[in-house]
Specification:
Among the domains are: 41 residues; 49 residues, no CATH class. It is built from 6 helices and no strands. Helix 1 packs across helix 3, helix 2 packs across helix 3 and helix 5 packs across helix 6. The longest helix has 14 residues. The radius of gyration is 27 Å and the shape is elongated. The model has no long low-confidence stretch (mean pLDDT 83).
Length: 132
């Protein structure tokens, strides 16, 4: 069995021909594939309503910090007057524990902030003495 798949456009074209009551063997001959491929596409159309349905499941482990908790954390960081804008990661962990009852590590908080393009780095300008 090969792992080759038709492009979505080709599968949609097959679906249009199936809707026009063209024989699956004729469709297979025009697309240079086996007729069982056309029957599988026909079964997917009957079951899902489209020739190539999207994947129903998400891959990977669910995120510990939900979207609402991440939004609350960013509001907590940026709404206050400068004292919490320079908060440490361990303070953010405590905030998430107290407010949202989420037990996470500092690296998890760091990754979540990175996904929102928030950096915890402080930029400082150091004057350079030049000698002429």
């Amino acid at each position: 069995m090969t792992s080759l798949r038709f492009a979505k456009a080709a599968a949609d074209d097959m679906a249009i021909l199936l809707a026009a009551n063209v024989s699956p063997r004729d469709i297979a001959n025009s697309f240079h594939c086996h007729y069982s491929t056309v029957y599988r596409i026909k079964e997917k159309i009957e079951e899902f309503g489209e020739a190539r349905p999207a994947s129903a499941s998400l891959m990977g482990r669910p995120k510990k910090i939900t979207a609402a908790a991440l939004e609350g954390l960013t509001d907590w960081l940026f709404d206050n007057e400068g004292d919490k804008q320079l908060a440490y990661l361990d303070e953010m962990v405590i905030f998430l524990q107290e407010e949202y009852d989420i037990d996470v590590s500092t690296s998890t908080v760091s990754r979540a902030l990175k996904s929102k393009n928030i950096s915890l780095k402080v930029v400082s300008f150091i004057p350079i003495m030049r000698r002429f």
